[in-house]
Amino acid sequence: MHASLWQGIKLVFGKEFTLGLRFKAAWSTMFMFALTTLACVSLALQGAPLEPELAAALLWIILFFAAMAGADRGFADEDTAGTLLTLQIYGSAQTVLWGKMLYTCFLLVCLTFFIVPLFLLLLGAEVAAGGVLAGTLLLGDVGIAAAGTLIAALTTGAQVKSGLFSVLMLPVILPVFLPAIFLTAGTLGSGQLPVHYLLGMALYDGVLLAAASVLFDYLWYED
């Protein structure tokens, strides 16, 4: 990666991080959605144990929809503030893509570190393979960030961007979502731990990153 490209990525990431700390819209939306959903689930279960498969599916549903509540704001805020055209003029496609994607991934990792320990504590779940769970969560976050950044750019300006964003995201992220559920269930004691699914998730994440890099050039300059 060229030094100028990396410098541009750091500038875009820094801008997103500064605005995120100043306005906190995406942060508060994602974290409050995840926390409220988890609290409702915990109260409904009233301490009753969950099967590992059900607990894993529930965890990823919470993470996915919490991400949907904030990950679509990457370009929507630029469009609303009227700075999107300025960013197109002064920022190259790749610096904008990777800077925003890196920030989205950072946001998702923070969300994961916040919600997963609470999930395990409130539901009384025990982790049998912490390293596999950490790898699964990281690869899942990378996949959601890659797909989310590209689709957020694609749906910028749409009248029903929130609904359209979720509809487009689900089929794209499904090849990461399903293995993540199986792996998480294995780490929670389901008896099956298909570690080779990690390789499949990593390969698909690589495909998403490469596709986003190629397609974003056409999308950015076409807009």
Q: Which percent range fits the helix content?
A: over 70%
Whole-number total of structural domains? 1
The H/E string reads HHHHHHHHH
Instruction: Measure the end-to-end span.
Output: 25 Å
What is the arithmetic mean of pLDDT? 81
Low-confidence stretches: none
Beta-strand residue fraction: under 5%
Shape, per Cα inertia axes: globular
Write the layout of secondary structure elements.
Elements lengths: L2 H21 L1 H21 L6 H19 L2 H9 L2 H7 L2 H31 L6 H25 L6 H27 L9 H26 L1
Helix pairs in contact: 1-6, 2-3, 2-6, 3-6, 3-8, 6-7, 6-9, 7-8, 7-9, 8-9
Can you characterise this structure?
The protein has 223 residues and is an all-alpha fold. The chain has one domain (3-222). The chain is 83% helix and 0% strand. The chain has nine helices and no strands. The protein has helices spanning 3-23, 25-45, 52-70, 73-81, 84-90, 93-123, 130-154, 161-187, 197-222. The chain is globular, with a radius of gyration of 18 Å. It starts with a helix and ends with a helix. The model has no long low-confidence stretch (mean pLDDT 81).
Summarize this structure briefly.
The chain has helices at 3-23, 25-45, 52-70, 73-81, 84-90, 93-123, 130-154, 161-187, 197-222. The protein is mostly helical and 223 residues long. It has one domain (3-222).
